[in-house]
Design a protein that fits this description.
By secondary structure, this protein is an alpha+beta fold. Helix content is 21%, strand content 30%. The strands form four sheets. It has a six-stranded mixed β-sheet, sandwiched between helices.
Length: 201
Amino acid sequence: MTDRCVSEAPKATFKDLALLPDELRAEIIDGVIIEKAGPTYEHGIAQRALGGFLGRRFHRSGRDQTGGHWPGGWWIGSEIDVEYEPHQVYCHDLVGWRRERAVAEPSGRPIRSRPDWVCEILSESNERNDRVNKFRVHQAARVPHYWLLDPAERVLVVHRFDSSGYRIVLTATTGEPVRAEPFADVEVRIDVMFGDEPDDE
């Protein structure tokens, strides 16, 4: 009997991802194309609620209900493909770039400019990737802020990158008002992030 040499399948890149149908939500994790499961109702509500809250206050500047000004200063989007390495292309639930660093609005697919903030909304099918695989890649890429929002447990965990890597700087749950970096200029109740309370401008 002779030994067989089994060659490993080539690792996927964005070229492989681009061949998939537009309606298929997928990303590349460690060189493997992973289809993202359809979002649960809770996931979708949290993504819309948090994205809307931050978008109104930080994606553009403007006046709040008291006549003051929202901070602005960010490009914020959802379901955007970001390439960190040739074999790591993530479709982020929410993601943002500081305008002072990214003078022009990010465009195209995938975006290869490192974000300044990423938020992943946990679900049973993606929790391991978000907590482990993506965590490691974001840390290696020095993404300054990484949020994990858990609709099942109603918990927000905020990570900040420093010289030793990521460390948790905030953990909060429903009923708590927070100033969560990098958006600490505006206070928000955790309940608003999950769509449990109205976003009162």
